[in-house]
């Protein structure tokens, strides 16, 4: 079972090129994370903030519980990679392996408490939605930064990116997400991750610098690294065949390991 976790300002649309090919190798689930895509955007709630990091972890595990999935391989791109790693740290018995695609592990981890306090002041809450609306004007610049070859961004792709900006309260919800973000210091805990990990990065990632993914693969106890040439921050979109080759090859290696373990146990 593969559960796909998209990055910041993305959605399930980000996986459009690889969903069906991956589904030939198992169950594949993708969902819009809170504040993104076409998911609902609550502005009032009781209990845990639905936009918080811990709520996103609970949502991932809750989805697995609802579907009767005991263990899954989490595939996380960018900030989705952060949620994948934190889920594995908190629920190691539920995660079989990780596939981290240009993951944002060293960026934003261990954010200071004062920053979260500031983001939740009345003044920041009034100005925040105005700030995030600038995405409508700057979005294409950010998208071009994420692709090695921005000429591949067709009008149809751009329409898919911007569709969620038509959802009611998208700006207020995005600010709630930003204000609630609380990422612990993940780099200090990488040694706790003993499950298999595949790190994939484009060689021209200007969002999460390629060197950070190389560093991550080196610091994880049981990781493999694939660097895709002439590719940016979104290999699953810009270089889907190379991405699929890496992921499917890795899935087959995991199956071989499982088979060998069964043979060893049987003997």
Spatial gap, N to C terminus = 28 Å
Strand content: 5-15%
Summarize the amount of helix as a percent range. 40-55%
- List the helices and strands in order: EHEHEHEHHHHHEHEHH
Tell me the radius of gyration. Answer: 18 Å
Could you give the order of strands across the largest sheet?
2-1-3-4-5-6
**Class inferred from helices and paired strands:** alpha/beta
Note poorly predicted spans.
Answer: none
Q: How is the biggest beta sheet arranged?
A: 6 strands, parallel
- How many helical stretches? 11
Shape: globular
Total number of strands: 6
Mean pLDDT: 91
Q: Would you give an account of this structure?
A:
This protein is an alpha/beta fold. The protein contains eleven helices and six strands. It has helices spanning 19-23, 53-67, 79-90, 113-119, 122-132, 135-146, 155-162, 170-180, 210-219, 235-238, 240-266; strands at 2-5, 28-30, 72-77, 95-101, 197-202, 223-228. It has a six-stranded parallel beta sheet, sandwiched between helices. Helix 3 links the parallel strand 3 and strand 4 (95-101). Helix 2 packs across helix 3 and helix 5 packs across helix 8 (170-180). The longest helix is centred in the last third of the chain and has 27 residues, at 240-266. The chain starts with a strand and ends with a helix.
């Amino acid at each position: 079972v593969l559960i796909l976790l998209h990055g910041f300002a993305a959605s399930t649309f980000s996986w459009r090129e690889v969903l069906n090919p991956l589904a030939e190798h198992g169950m594949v689930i993708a969902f819009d994370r809170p504040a993104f895509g076409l998911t609902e955007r609550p502005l009032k709630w009781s209990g845990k903030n639905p936009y918080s990091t811990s709520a996103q972890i609970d949502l991932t595990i809750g989805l697995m519980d609802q579907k009767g999935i005991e263990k899954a391989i989490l595939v996380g791109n960018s900030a989705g990679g952060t949620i994948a790693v934190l889920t594995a740290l908190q629920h190691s018995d539920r995660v079989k392996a990780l596939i981290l695609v240009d993951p944002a592990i060293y960026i934003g981890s261990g954010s200071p408490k004062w920053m979260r306090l500031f983001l939740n002041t009345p003044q920041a809450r009034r100005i925040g939605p105005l700030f995030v609306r600038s995405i409508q004007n700057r979005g294409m610049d950010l998208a071009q930064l994420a692709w090695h070859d921005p000429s591949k961004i067709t009008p149809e792709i751009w329409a898919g990116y911007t569709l969620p900006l038509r959802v009611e309260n998208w700006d207020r919800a995005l600010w709630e997400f930003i204000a609630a973000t609380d990422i612990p210091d993940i780099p200090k805990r990488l040694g706790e991750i003993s499950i298999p990990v595949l790190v994939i990065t484009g060689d021209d990632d200007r969002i999460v610098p390629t060197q950070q993914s190389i560093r991550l693969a080196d610091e994880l106890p049981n990781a493999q690294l694939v660097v895709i040439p002439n590719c940016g921050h979104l290999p699953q979109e810009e270089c889907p065949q190379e991405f699929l080759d890496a992921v499917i090859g890795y899935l087959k290696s995991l199956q071989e390991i499982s088979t060998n373990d069964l043979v060893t146990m049987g003997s």
